[in-house]
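Quick board copy: two proteins, each given as sequence then tokens.
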Amino acid sequence: MTNARQPRQPLAVDVLVVGAGCAGVAAAVGAGEEGAATLLVDAAGCVGDTLAGHLLEHGGGFYTIDGQQVVAGFAQRLVGQMRQTGASPGHAHDDAGDTATRAPINPTALMLTEARCLHDAGVGLWLHAPLVAVKRHRNRIVYCAFSTPSGVRWVAPRMVIDTSGDAVAAHLALAGFQPDTATERQPASLQFTLSGVDFAALMHYVRGHAEEFRPGGHFPAAPEDHVDLWGFASLLRQGYQEGSLSLARNEMHIAGWAKRGELGVNVTRYDGQEPDGADHAGQAWLTLCRQIVEYDHWFRRCVPGCARAYVSAIGGQVDGRVSRRVLGRYTVTQHDVLHGVRFHDSIACGGFPIKSPFADQPDLAPADRPGQGFEVAYRSLLPVKPDNLLVAGRCLSSDHAANRALRVTATCLATGEAAGVAAALAVRQGCPPALIAVDQLRLRLRQRGAIVSLDGDAS
């Protein structure tokens, strides 16, 4: 509840989606294609958020380690369209051994592909419009206020889907949240891109030092269009010992586009003591940028093939990995993920393992075990309150450990599509999302090509 004045002429929509990352785009497209008048709103100036804005090197979680595809539907359509335009090679081998495949992406092309999908689905889009207030009547959201360049604008939605990552809508609507402790926080990071890389020289070094890289790595004799590597142990340790690098690392992740001479680099880390503090993101950004400057010089001086390389881009925002997670009608747990627990109301699946990156240790992200596949209950998309709110992406109802597997690209796309279709069904049936027939939702998702259970099309 807020003290904002009653809006005079709010924009009425069937479905309001707050947050234009992968989950938000999938939710908006899903709702729009199902016939709901849909509005997607984001505080940034473009769609794509985490995957595009953070310059993440690829999307993961489409397949299990055994090669079973567990995410399809809109997510697969998106990968297929990017492959057609050269923005992705499609599903490539996962050298990290977390799952069978990864889907490398070009961040800019991803945004353009998502924009086309939104346009074709007839979705309205507001950008540069952070959500600033929510007005509830009893147990329903009746108005949402956004700060736009032209002033505060109000929306009167029938259904709201929070895909903001940080559960902004749920927070302002006074929804309940999962408890976390200080020991459960994860480090922040900032991705960056190196251009001007000589891949022939780089891969020559890699093939001669295979012991420095994760087992099962793929080291082609000639540079392929896309290279995925986890390692460089001796070079990183040498850089730290001689004082060139202030961060102790045993490995880094680089995802390279050989034809473009570009490397996406994941190596920075920041462990702030107050993840919810007002200055946390700013302090993290300053520290991480300083690390990037160090790595920029170190790459040119120490890494073969990078003598003429330079930092051509950094992520648009700090990746904190952990955010608020709602208290839903069901909470997906670590046990559910590790043991592939089946749910009668499963509406999406995932294949990524539970990974635990630490800021105070030199390795990047150990996994509990390779991803074996898990299901996501529809109830985890439904906060206990308010009645007309759904969530998708990393802020859905899960415990801290399970969220490490749920927050990856493919699962966010899958839960986003499910939330969008569910919201459209709720509008059509004139009932809260918790009261729609789950069998109808599961059927409609399967008709859209989505995978709703680990047992395939079984109801």
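And the next:
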Amino acid sequence: MKIINPSVQLEDKIDGQAILKKIERIGRVCYKSEGNITKDSAERFVKSIIARGHESVLEHVSISVRVICDRGVTHEIVRHRIASYSQESQRFCNYSNDKFGNELTFIKPCFWNNENVHRAFEYKLWKSECERIEQTYFTLIRNGATPQEARSILPNSLKTEIVMTMNLREWRHFFKLRCDKAAHPQMREIANMILEEFRKEIPVVFDDLEVQ
């Protein structure tokens, strides 16, 4: 059994300035103000349309992100409808194969750690149950169960990978919901990771959204 932390990876090579210039070129069609485009006008224009709520222009740019997290988190991710998803399939992935290290991989819950005795005890119980599930899964496979049959015992904590593609407007909506302190802790953990990457790579578009 392996326990790992969640992670994210941008699937696109991002040129933040090129994105802003594209948004400006397209957005100025609405106002027929293409003549106002200058070398330095894109950031001001994009900041202005976001401030005015004219976010439909942001839909012309999409970004794909690979997320490694637990299955429970992906159940929340795919509720966002204006998006495309490709996810690791438990039906076809046989985790007893060499390709998967002949083991199940679980995502360590961010809310169970060793800083508190009670929390450490909960983590110990969680880990013990994951070990038991792994042994049962392998026993099922050895006795002839197919991966799609054996998956019925796999928990939310099992590691999965999902690639999600959204336009910038939908990413903003995603972050407003999923970075909020009311979101599930593991969902917020992932959303904050992605937002941090976007804020580093793309000027202006996400400046008004904070990692929480």
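Board note added afterward: The first helix runs from residue 16 to 31.
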